């Protein structure tokens, strides 16, 4: 997040941005559902692959809207669920086994509805597929071996529809649906 708010505490605590010469960047830790900045602080809000960890998706979107200045915009990039119950159940299962901080991947319709309810006008959604190499995917989250085995076992027992959609490979690698959407306050 960037803004024009100075914060001596973040510099004293080792603000990594300030250490790199970016004096206009303030770092703070906090939950998306309670962003620790005043109303109308930012020209832009960017969320990259975090919303599926928010405990309250709608509140996180409302907070993003709250901290935007008039004329600002937000960009959200995240994985999404294809929406059919079978594919959704598989995706939520492997995500939770990999990382217990996972809450939920949302459908395209849930994203559009959530943004609208939070006071945004959603723009077009750019969808793409992200190939994930299994070993590095689980290593990033230090997934326990028992959970990695469970993910592989689940993948091996899935229907041809699940295997085809996620392009599940023999080593467990697969392809994830992802999207990027720009939203402006209404």
Descriptive keywords:
disordered N terminus, 4-stranded mixed beta sheet, globular, 186 residues, Rossmann fold, 2 domains, alpha+beta
Topology:
Blueprint lengths: L7 H5 L3 H4 L22 E7 L8 H10 L1 E12 L5 H14 L9 H10 L2 E13 L1 H7 L4 H12 L3 H7 L7 E12 L1
Parallel strand pairs: 1-2
Antiparallel strand pairs: 2-4, 3-4
Account of the 3D structure:
The two termini are about 20 Å apart. The protein has two domains: about 1-30, no CATH class; about 30-185, Rossmann fold. α4 (about 85-100) runs antiparallel to α7 (about 145-155). It has eight helices and four strands; from the N terminus they run ααβαβααβαααβ. It has helices at about 10, 15-20, 55-65, 85-100, 110-115, 135-140, 145-155, 160-165; strands at about 40-50, 70-80, 120-130, 175-185. It has a four-stranded mixed sheet with strand order 1-2-4-3. Helices cover about 35% and strands about 25% of the residues. With about 190 residues, it is an alpha+beta fold.
